[in-house]
Amino acid sequence: MRTSLCGMLLISATAMAEPPSKLFYTSQADFIEMNLSLKTADDANPRYIGLSVVLSPEAKARTARVSAQAMNNSLTLYLNGRQLSTATVKSVLDSGKLRFLIPREMLVELMPSLMK
After folding, report:
1. Sorted alphabetically, which keywords does the UniProt record give (predicted)?
2. Do the bridges between strand 74-79 and strand 21-25 make them parallel or antiparallel, or are there none, so unpaired?
3. At residue 97, does pLDDT exceed 50?
4. CA-closest candidate to residue 74, choices 20, 24, 23
5. Residue 17 has what pLDDT?
6. Is residue 38 pLDDT above 80, yes or no?
7. What is the CATH number of the domain that holds 106?
């Protein structure tokens, strides 16, 4: 009896888990500054390119609001229509500065949209 109750609770908790929150960015409207880091001396994972951005005031407010609502839950980031990553939110993202890690292969496809 105890095992089946635990199994039911686990299934119920899994079934009730919320899908990740989503944050969509467009480089043209949401970023006021972008810097690509192709290679660094302390590159932990050379398969990724770093994109550091400064958010527009509107994107900064939206990011803070959505990340606060997603606290301790998953949040998926999208850039110019492409999914970049999903992570658990541990603090509100309110600095107005973000760093995306983009797979090298994806950057080749994404670059034209970043140049607009």
Report:
1. Signal
2. parallel
3. yes
4. 20
5. 60
6. yes
7. 3.30.1360.200
CB 55 within 8 A of CB 109: no
Q: Give the model's pLDDT for residue 30.
A: 98
| pLDDT, position 14 | 41
95 Cβ partners below 8 Å, 6+ apart? none
**CB burial class (10 A; 0-12, 13-18, 19+) of residue 57?**
exposed
Number of domains the chain contains: 1
**Cα–Cα distance between 28 and 113 in angstroms, integer?**
8
48 is in which domain, residue-wise? 19-114
pTM: 0.79
Q: Which two tokens stand for residue 82?
A: 């492409």
